[in-house]
Amino acid sequence: IEVLQWNCRSLIKNMDAFKFLVHRTRCDIFALSETWLTSDKNISFHDFNIIRRDRGDGYGGVILGINKLHSFYRIDFPPMNGTEIVACHVTIQGKSFSVASVYIPPSTRLSRRDLAEICCAMPAPWLILGDFNAHGTAWGSPKDDNRATLIYDLCDYFNLTILNSGEATRIKPPDPPSMLDLSICSNSLSLDCTWNVIQDPHGSDHLPIKISVTNDSCQARQIDVAYDLTKHIDWGKYAELVSEGEQSVDVLPPQEEYQFLSGLIVESALKAQRRPVPGTSIRRRPPTLWWDEECTGAYRERSAAFKKYRKRGTRENYERYSSLDEIFKNLVKAKKRGYWRNFVNGLSRETSMRTLWTVGRRMRNAVSVNEDRESSPRWIFEFAKKVCPDSVQVQSNIRRYPPERNAMDSPFSMLEFSLALLSCNNSAPGMDRIKFNLLKSLPDVAKRRLLNLFNLFLESNTV
């Protein structure tokens, strides 16, 4: 699980660089502070749900972005004394936790109660990310200020860990480097987290932070492949490898057994290839419509200049980085204008309205919906309570049959399973990206094991 944290100091100004950062890190969640947005400014990220809180004066502001593959619901906070926060409870690959994006301006009078309310409003475990504008020796500052004392007390009371390694997160000459951005998590999460600073401010004076949360229990033996494993495969060898691997494990809990089988299928398919697999990296689309190799080159040149400044620390090196940063921003603006001109010049009667609206929205960084409350099944139960409140008597004239007489409630048979596979094209319908031909060619013993798992999941309502 990849989490990106950043004080962006104007999301609109640094939007293109940030989209490339999200594209490069392949994050599941991002937490931004000092977005400098107002309620009339809509933003979009193609693969993310957005929850945000803006400040009326156009400064401050916080955002959480959650990849649309993951379910979440927003956690609401009462008005707090100057503390800006958005939070949600998210479930990723079977791992559930609360994540918050926080910004506390330097002028805010912070109290223990303000900090305690953050944890009290969210179900544990917690991942609290943001710019606290606090100086503490525990995260690399030369001395403790009043806020550091409050944060220490918060960590002691709620069993929290500060993930920071002591590395600077804000760089702005001639000011000395500082560590204002904190990543705080529950003790139960701390051993699963790896904390790293990305050495490129991407137009801000704060450095982005990447937090990797391992999830071995839910990621058993998953292999990332971009190659069609059914194209050049020895089907006989594949069946033998699956049979051998299947016999090596007897009894596992259902979900662990399913993960084991899916990993075994991909591993066996890789080993049964008649020719070397050319690569395992997924080709991803560019972060924006107008991004090209020239943009990537300018981005890398700017990043290299900042790393050189961090290594040598001279004023000339920082000015060189600032100059390349301005060149990069101007280049991206020019690419955007050029893409739009070419698109307009290429319009014809055959251009669909869908294409027009899609390109128009992406050019404006806007969507019709400004914010997402949740992406989880919870709303179904809330909706059902409104339609059928508990106070209303239920009258049912539906004739009920004993379960044993209803064929729809009976487990799937091997014949039904085989017919279903025969009717499928060679596509990959799920996140494991296992194509149907790999399932069709499984040995009978593995098919029966997989069918038993499907029936168990159906009986227990497990998705």
TrEMBL record:
GO CC terms of this entry: extracellular matrix
InterPro entries, alphabetized: Endo/exonu/phosph_ase_sf, Endo/exonuclease/phosphatase
Domain Endonuclease/exonuclease/phosphatase: 98-209
Gene Ontology biological process: cell adhesion involved in heart morphogenesis; larval heart development
GO molecular function terms listed in the Swiss-Prot or TrEMBL record: catalytic activity
PANTHER family: REVERSE TRANSCRIPTASE DOMAIN-CONTAINING PROTEIN (PTHR33395:SF22), TRANSCRIPTASE, PUTATIVE-RELATED-RELATED (PTHR33395)
This protein's name: Putative i-7b aae
Originating species: Aedes albopictus
Highest classification ranks of the organism: Eukaryota, Metazoa, Ecdysozoa, Arthropoda, Hexapoda
